Amino acid sequence: MPRKICVVTGTRAEYGLLQSVMTLLKSDPDVQFQLVVTGSHLSSRHGETVRQIEQDGFVPNERVQVDLTDDSKLGIARAMADTTSKIAEAFDRLSPDVIVVLGDRYEILASAQAALILGIPIAHIHGGEVTAGAFDDSIRHAITKMSSLHFVAAQDYMRRVIQLGEQPNTVFNVGALGIDLALSTELADRQELCESLHVQLTNPILLVTYHPTTRADKSASEEITEVLAALEKFAYCTVVFTGVNADPGNSEISSKISQFISADPKKRSLHESLGQKNYFSLMKLCDVVVGNSSSGIIEAPAFRVPTVNIGARQHGRLKADSIVDSNVDRNQIQTSIEITLSSTWRERCAKIVSVYGSGNCAQKIVNTLKTADLSAKKTFFDLS
After folding, report:
1. Residue 325 to residues 9, 80, 107, 320, 354: CA-CA distances in angstroms?
2. What pTM does this model have?
């Protein structure tokens, strides 16, 4: 009987990474593929990206609607509780053999909590990483402790998951799914991108993604004010923003970005969801990736594109030599962008080797999901 493997996705970013795994599972005759869609995928405010999932040929078995209108910390806590309850009902109807989750967001923690109580094994992708500037860091480790299978992106992360007490034979260093995407996505050319995004893409191009830093000294409003003040100094650049995630403080960031764009709409634009093809095509074309997204840490180096990583949100991740770290300070951000725009830094980036593997990650994950012993009880692994 085919193994029932259920993938849970809650955001456009994590769906982009999971898509290759989902494609392999869907086409495998030995697998009964199931899909649960929740979180910002179902929110019009965040681009209603479930439509992209359906355009890609996937039909959700369950849609778990969550109220994301209140982006305060209390509002997010309520949303998480609501997700736990609703997704437990979904899992009970689907009765999967294993659920597959990626990363460290609160809707994924809710999914893991529900699966744990229902006795459904969890396969977790991208565990063992550290992002000290966000509460996602604690969520990620919590999901690790609830999971039975672990697919990590680097040897250091494998060691850390084992350090958390997970049995070594359940931890697999497969590399990062983002590298698969960076190497396999058919990219659009400049003209296609301009027509698709309805913007003129004249170099230098800054690709900017800035999410709330949920463990920070400054407020979301104060942080984005510093970032935008730095970007003001690059009036000669085309600045393309991607949408803000649903973490606490996202509305303040989105509002200030919209005001920034309105001051020069010919050179600045915001796209709630670029889609995988457009996003990677733009990353390949741009001169610098700016902000605090993990894509600037994982995928940008695979394209040999420099990154200005701002603030503490990604503090602790393994980083290539193409990345310049900056505090949330307008002058330091400006200087960092100037450095990465230089010909010297471009030459440096041309020699970069990714620290997150060389591809084929999705196939490794699927092979293990199909053959792993899911009946084994979890026991704590003590370091000698």
Report:
1. 30, 32, 29, 11, 17
2. 0.77
